[in-house]
Amino acid sequence: MNYSLNSLKENPKPLFDFMKENHFPVFHKSGIFFRDFQYGLSRFLDKNQVKVPYSKFEKVALDLANT
Q: Residue 28 has what pLDDT?
């Protein structure tokens, strides 16, 4: 299934499920390092063929992290 960035803002559960399944350090009610989140998001977007230019990726990751 393809996800858009707006759908991830509304429902980030598929992203976190992906990160858990792929052994990223995501635990219930636990903090996460921003770089780990960025790397997991990058892998998730690549898997779902969502293209985000590298120059805008950090802002996208920050926007998603703040939701």
A: 62
Angle CA 44–5–20, to nearest 5: 30
Polymer length of the chain:
67
| Amino acid identity, position 12 | P
Question: Which segments of the chain does DSSP mark as H helices, in order?
Answer: 5-10, 13-21, 34-47, 54-65
CB < 8 Å & 24+ apart, contacts of 52-59: 52/5
Under-50 pLDDT residues of the chain: 1
Give Dmax over CA atoms of the chain in angstroms: 31
What pLDDT, on a 0 to 100 scale, did the predictor assign at position 29? 65
